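2024-03-11 09:14:02 DEBUG pipeline.ingest accepted 1 chain
2024-03-11 09:14:02 DEBUG pipeline.ingest length=381
2024-03-11 09:14:03 DEBUG pipeline.predict start
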Amino acid sequence: MSTRRQLLSAAAAGAAVLAASPLLATAQDSGSLMPTRGKPGSGPLPTNAPVAGGRFRPLSRIGLGGVAIGNGFAPASDEQSRATLQAAFAAGVRYFDTSPWYGLGLSERRFGHFLHNLRPEEYVLSTKVGRLLTATDSPPKTMWAEPSPFTYRYDYSADGVRRSIEDSLQRLGVSQIDIVFIHDLSPDNQDMGERWAEYFEQAARGAIPELTRMREEGLIKAWGFGVNHPAPALRALEVGDPDIFLLACQYSLLDHQEALDNTFPQLAKRDISVVVGAPLLAGYLAGRDRYLYSGSVPAWAPEKRERITAVADRYGIDLRTAALQFAAAHPLVSAVIPGARTPEQAQANVQSMQVAIPNEFWETLRREQLIAQNAPVPSLA
């Protein structure tokens, strides 16, 4: 049996075991799961239709983000991470996003251990540039649990970008990277502080023209910014020709008005699509008491989550399913990339994209002013 068939067979067997496992009723512990509720839909997972002459978009509209596999918030084993990737692929996920930052190289290594057994045309892979890793016996204190033994420094120069991509290819063990995001070059990056404007100028002279050349040379298919704040993404429009942005923490079922009114319209003028990072707000919309990456839940969030959950209960669906489908419904969005620490979580994210949500659910959220009146929503035919 070929390596690829072995992977698919193992993933399918694991999926069958998981399907028979009881789902956890709460989602507070590491690896726990909010049960999927609702009527399963029919047909394939949503995809993006290729547009002749248009900017590159990943084919799959449901992807897998690499924060948890890089030991974000809690550690995971290599075996568990591989099983998670297998389960995602078996369920139909074909877009994978990682970064040198996630686990200080750990996420890329784990993604690569799985992806290198597949053909490059079978998936889309994105990673990031902006930090260069150096081996050390005393890694810095970061958000990563049990990271790889590396320290990092910021480098948005042309040479830094080339080196970063070469290092990523080595860690991943694959032949190509499809999308490259300039990472965390943003005023909300406290580690960078006020130097973000200085680093942006370095990127304007180095990373941006270098990635443009790499796209023109066919070494990558697309580039953009991967940031948690809209300012650097919009500023990039003034100095470059990006294809796609990974906007984390900016478009979710709970918080989306700013992106709808200001960010998305400016990107639409340039035919730039959006990958929605943290569509579940780092677990908050999957039942956890953790909101994004700061650790503090905004004062307004619990009541709004409770009210949306109550409406979801009325229509027999779960909050995670509503959140993922909402984030994917905007026509500018080319993919949503929830993270997963376990095979069960990876499966559940895909299942959520296949639930048939009644149109009346979205109408109720609008009527009760729980989503913006101008927010696109999924629609049952």
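2024-03-11 09:14:41 DEBUG pipeline.report The first helix runs from residue 3 to 20.
2024-03-11 09:14:41 DEBUG pipeline.predict end
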